[in-house]
Amino acid sequence: MIERTVFDRAAIAARIDALGREISEYYRNSGDLLVLGVLKGSFIFLADLVRSIDCPLRVDFLTASSYGSGTVSSGEVVLSLDPRTKLSGRDVLLVEDIVDRGGTLEKILPLLGAMGPKSLEVCVLLHKRSVVLEREPRWVGFDAPPEFLVGYGLDHAEEYRHLPFIGSLKLPEMKLPKD
Ligand code: IMP
Ligand code: MG
Q1: Of all atoms in ligand 1, which is nearest to the CA of residue 106?
Q2: pTM score of the predicted model
Q3: pLDDT tens digits for range 27-66
Q4: Which of 3, 78, 79, 144 meets the CB 3.0–4.6 Å disulfide criterion with 170?
């Protein structure tokens, strides 16, 4: 059950416009920008973001799964990327839905870095700021509250991705076993 709307459609659209302007400026002279989305959570954000960027770019995706059906990070990240996607010599912008403890990014970035991109930057829609990261994303949509967020690409057990806004999920109370 959605407890409350955290970021509505208008707030998301306005923020993405601003991000698009900053990113366009940053990569103005690039000529070889690859926007690389982390599936599945980034698919809606990326679709809106690339439409707000007005310099030439290409789009690709990778998958990195860190969560099962629970809401606690398992610490395991499995990465898969189309082997035809070449990163070497290109400006790569990794697009992610949300950073919580940063484990996903910490595991993905060295792997991508090893593929020899000319530059590697990160744009995340939401940042929970649970910990201070060794390497912070260059672009952040919003600082997020310490709640479980769904919608606009983010899921809970694959549900809620299609919601056009970001809401917080009311989770059932944890019942501790009696002994
Ligand atoms: P991290 O590795 O702890 O930074 O967790 C990041 C990943 O966990 C994201 O890519 C999401 O897939 C997932 N995640 C973290 N917090 C949330 C949330 O509030 N809602 C949905 N997914 C989340
Ligand atoms: Mg994710």
Answers
A1: 2
A2: 0.91
A3: 999 999 999 999 999 999 999 999 999 999 999 999 986 5
A4: 3
